[in-house]
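Deliverable D2.4 — example input (structure tokens):
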């Protein structure tokens, strides 16, 4: 596949981009967006954004600095608008044979440019709009995003466990036993480590809500996930 051709929309390359590759690409966009959101908590990112205009523009939000909480809302609302517009363009598309499916699986260069342009344009929207957006609309969207993410994670864990168990039953393979046990213990280890990280960075004194949320989820480190292993080994 010629990446340059697909990147700038010379050809959509529907056949070359598998469904998994497309999901990974959108996941990378989300990752980059999250990193940008984190950087926007600092004035450094704003200076870099002004530098992209060759220092022609000085970005300010009604005379105030555009970094911090509101800047994070601007960046994330841009990504939300990007996916909303893309969803509207893909209404009724049910397979990759549809001509509009190329918008989903290809044209990555133009899509990235549109996304970055939306991020840039949000800095010209009044701050009052994002204060209302962040308190109400973004909160509801964040709750739905977390809920959907939990459902997908549980489904992934269940599917992976069932796949490994099927391989163990079919081939009586010690390798697949090791993979299943190793992946289970690995995920527990990562979850435990990330819980400690959350305590360090997000549960300082005065953050009672964060402390309560992290503490409540901590008992989830329990042994039911290991039960299928003991039954089949």
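Example output (designed residues):
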């Amino acid at each position: 596949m010629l990446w340059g051709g697909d990147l700038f929309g010379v050809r959509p390359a529907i056949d070359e981009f598998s469904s998994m590759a497309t999901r990974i690409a959108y996941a990378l966009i989300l990752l980059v967006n999250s990193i940008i959101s984190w950087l926007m908590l600092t004035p450094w990112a704003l200076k870099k954004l002004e530098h992209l205009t060759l220092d022609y523009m000085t970005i300010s939000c009604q005379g105030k600095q555009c970094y911090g909480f509101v800047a994070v809302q601007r960046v994330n609302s841009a990504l939300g608008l990007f996916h909303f517009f893309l969803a509207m363009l893909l209404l009724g598309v049910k397979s990759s044979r549809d001509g509009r499916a190329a918008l989903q699986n290809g044209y990555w260069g133009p899509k990235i440019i549109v996304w970055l342009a939306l991020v840039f344009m949000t800095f010209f929207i009044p701050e009052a709009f994002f204060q209302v957006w962040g308190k109400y609309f973004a909160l509801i969207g964040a709750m739905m995003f977390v809920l959907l993410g939990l459902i997908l994670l549980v489904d992934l864990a269940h599917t992976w466990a069932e796949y490994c168990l099927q391989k163990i039953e079919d081939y009586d393979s010690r390798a697949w036993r090791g993979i299943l046990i190793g992946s289970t213990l690995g995920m527990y280890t990562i979850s435990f480590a990330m819980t400690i990280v959350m305590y360090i960075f997000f549960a300082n004194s005065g953050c009672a809500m964060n402390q309560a949320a992290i503490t409540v989820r901590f008992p989830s480190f329990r042994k039911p996930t290991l039960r299928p292993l003991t039954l089949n080994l």
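DSSP finds ten helices and no strands in the chain.
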